[in-house]
Here is the input.
Amino acid sequence: MSVFGTKRGRALSEGGARARARMGWAALGVLAVVGCLVGAGAAGGSTRAKASSASLAPIGILSAEGTEQAPILAAMHVNRSVVVDGYTFFVGTINGQPVVDAFSGEIDESAELAAYLLISHFHPRAMLFSGTAGSETAPINVGDVVVSGMVVDKSNIHYQTGGYQSPYEGIEMHLVSGDSIAGDEVAGYDTTLPTPKDAKTFGYGPSTANKKWVYVTSLAATRELVKLAAQAPSLGTTSLADATGESTSGSIKNKIVVGVIGQAPVWTEPLGWIEAQDFVYQTDAEENEGTGFAFACATQGVPWMLIRGISDTPWHPNAYQGVIASDNAAKVAVYVVDHLAAKISAKPVVFTDLSPETNARTAGYVVAEQAWYSVGPVTKVTYVASNGKTKTLVGAALNKLKQEYSFSASKI
Here is the structure.
């Protein structure tokens, strides 16, 4: 799902905050199937049987919201549905190929849990995440599709007093047998952890690197999946009116781009802020949930890829086409399902697999070490008081609150 301030984005934000608590991994071990229902599936496309499909492990498909899931379900022949920990998994086929589809929710933690549950209960041979995103690259337009060469967590930023921002260590991964960090950008490792024997005197502990706890700043998708997605047939065209949000004639031809997808639960509309983020993480599309999905797949050693139809772009602030973006992403997902081999190479995407028009290829890197920036002073604040009235802080009242944010404010 796109994280820009679109009409849909604003409506969602006004509808109330979503719970973001993440269930611990230990708790996942006791989850059970709590329901099994027979579903009447729609057959989208051919239902021809393939000789080897009966013995194949399914392909898992997640979507972050109903608009994104609908075209996947429309392409499926659903045989049954299974409810696991509140998530409904539709089990069936697409063009005779076994698939399991679910609505994951649009925040990183819920997508991570949905992916983990699908993997642990249905043991897929590959995982796809079909949905929408906002463009972060000027040549990438509404209706285009970006498939994940790589995925980064753009909310993982450290704003430092030296006047620069940098990636904050990275995503911590505890490596065990079956994990895959091949092709990932590794920022470093944690240090030796305490034990009951040395806990009382541990302090900061020794500086010895603990190679079982690794910090990953960029997760690389599965190359075979990405290469296959890039071969999908033409996506057709989008009218210039839909692509720009303006009253104009003509159309543009949509394309598939292998790029870097940034997960960031922070809606970034102004181009200046997007610039600041992109110079740390050179992304081509931005959404809410990709890192959690990629993390769950990587920790379970399952081949994976995100497929993101572009619904909006900050270069044309009035444009938003969620249905077009969802449909185009689903076209690519269905093509991958229909053509994926029984055995999938675990080789990851490499930098040169990214499309030439991507920000990373233009800049020469995916994740920077540092990017200098400036943040202007707060000039006005509006808030809702306990009596329900909206109030505004400006002038002396605001300046009084701002006095705390100086080194002289410390009392020691």
Observations:
- The domain at 7-372 is CATH 3.40.50.1580 (Rossmann fold).
